[in-house]
């Protein structure tokens, strides 16, 4: 599929995603220690209403909420999004993929190396999402 077709599929799926529930851990709003961990954990209690799937309680994570495989890791521009942490990662991108890829620089990278990666990406003709410094 072309980037344009994938972007159209993704946009249709995004409109659908607006009505999808946000999956939070059970009782995340009651306890401070659970609020800090933004992880989903399956409720296991014998009388847990969420586990039983009763009306009025948060939804359980199910496989039916998953996106189609061909649009799963796409950026909003329709390009495949990759996370880069070194110059070597940037140089490993194939010439064929350069037009289909958009790069995100890892947040742990300092300013000096980030500038090097941005300059190298401009030379190679690769787009960077967080390329401002």
UniProtKB/TrEMBL annotation:
SMART domains: Ribosomal_L32e (SM01393)
Single GO BP term: translation
Keyword terms of this UniProt record: Ribonucleoprotein, Ribosomal protein
Superkingdom as given in the UniProt entry: Archaea
Molecular function GO labels: structural constituent of ribosome
Pfam families per record: Ribosomal_L32e
GO CC list: cytosolic large ribosomal subunit
Keyword Ribonucleoprotein part of the UniProt annotation: yes
UniProt-listed InterPro entries: Ribosomal_eL32 (IPR001515), Ribosomal_eL32_arc (IPR023654), Ribosomal_eL32_sf (IPR036351)
Ribosomal protein in keyword set: yes
PANTHER family recorded: 60S RIBOSOMAL PROTEIN L32 AND DNA-DIRECTED RNA POLYMERASE II, SUBUNIT N, RIBOSOMAL PROTEIN L32
The family this protein is said to belong to: Belongs to the eukaryotic ribosomal protein eL32 family.
Protein name per UniProt: Large ribosomal subunit protein eL32
């Amino acid at each position: 599929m072309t980037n344009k077709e994938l972007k159209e599929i993704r946009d249709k799926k995004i409109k659908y995603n607006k009505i999808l529930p946000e999956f939070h851990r059970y009782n995340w709003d009651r306890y401070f220690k659970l609020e800090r961990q933004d992880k989903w954990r399956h409720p296991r209690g014998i009388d847990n209403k969420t586990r039983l799937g009763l009306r009025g309680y948060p939804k359980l994570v199910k496989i039916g909420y998953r996106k189609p495989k061909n649009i799963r890791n796409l950026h909003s521009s329709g390009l495949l999004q990759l996370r880069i942490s070194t110059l070597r990662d940037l140089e490993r991108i194939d010439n064929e993929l350069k037009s289909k890829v958009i790069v995100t620089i890892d947040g742990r990278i300092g300013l000096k190396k980030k500038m090097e990666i941005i300059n190298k990406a401009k030379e190679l003709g690769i787009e960077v999402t967080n390329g401002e410094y």
